[in-house]
């Protein structure tokens, strides 16, 4: 097991990569603990949960709403949760996003931690303290920056995931390589088959590299004033597609990264050969690289993006494999490119 630390404004977060759900008890403080999970995680792994009351939510992005948050608040009141209660989220990105938000706001904030059960949440969603929910067509519109006390990334959770969910996680791993680590990209290219079959050594290295890279960025820019914006590479189009089509986050980000690479090429920042390399890698990882949505609908969805400022949007371009830059892009340019 390896531990990576992130020092946030509100405290230190420990990310334990390679630790197991069955050991979570040793990280829990000696106070009342309440678990938040979803129905699928509870069905598969509930027997290993520590002995504590469990609040179970549904699955899918549609559940990431203020209505779910309100329902959980009421359950917490019924369970007698007070300011000393510790909240433990056990699940993927949606469970972690909701749990972190609920814990950070109930009674103005309780202590919390996560056991991260999907590849996507281990390499991205559970790390960095972005917690929140969607509001209507607006993705992650209401939320907070607040670091969990700990995150457990349990490799034994991964083999129970459907292949599609594994591919979703690879989109965020590739993103990390593309924005800041060319060696990581080359490593994935050399190990695609092993990665897809969840080879223990390859996955451990990719999860750890991703967590270290993201933790470093978050440590330097927790509230996304500058460098952290790079973690949004591929997410402008990605979030729009996710909202429009309901496709999985990783799939949408994969298409978004291909488009962002192409936009980078058209601005003269990236070679055509690099664009093709990115496309081939995502395709090999069984991720989609194109879509059929109309530019009008996409533009409409992008207008609802949090990165919008007036007539511009903060956009992440690549200026090489493993190198990125954040620049403003006007909606006029974006429409032309689309
Ligand atoms: O942690 C971040 O910062 C990221 O941007 C990581 C993204 O991969 C992640 O999907 C994040 O939740 C998106 O945040 P948002 O602020 O664009 O909603």
Summarize the structure.
The protein is an alpha/beta fold and 338 residues long. The protein has helices at 39-45, 66-78, 93-105, 119-125, 163-180, 182-190, 192-196, 200-220, 235-245, 249-266, 272-284, 295-302, 331-337, and strands at 2-8, 11-17, 33-38, 54-57, 86-91, 111-116, 130-135, 138-145, 150-153, 308-309, 312-318, 324-330.
What would your notes on this structure say?
The protein is α/β, with parallel strands linked by helices and 338 residues long. The protein folds into two domains: 159 residues, Rossmann fold, CATH 3.40.50; 175 residues, Dehydroquinate synthase-like - alpha domain (Dehydroquinate synthase-like, alpha domain), CATH 1.20.1090.10. It has 13 helices and twelve strands. Strand 11 and strand 12 form a beta hairpin. The longest helix has 21 residues. It starts with a strand and ends with a helix. The model has no long low-confidence stretch (mean pLDDT 96). The structure holds the ligand O=C(O)C(=O)C[C@@H](O)[C@H](O)[C@H](O)COP(=O)(O)O. The ligand O=C(O)C(=O)C[C@@H](O)[C@H](O)[C@H](O)COP(=O)(O)O binds next to strand 8. Pathway: Metabolic intermediate biosynthesis; chorismate biosynthesis; chorismate from D-erythrose 4-phosphate and phosphoenolpyruvate: step 2/7. One of its GO terms (cellular component) is cytoplasm. It comes from Desulfamplus magnetovallimortis. It holds the Pfam family DHQS_C.
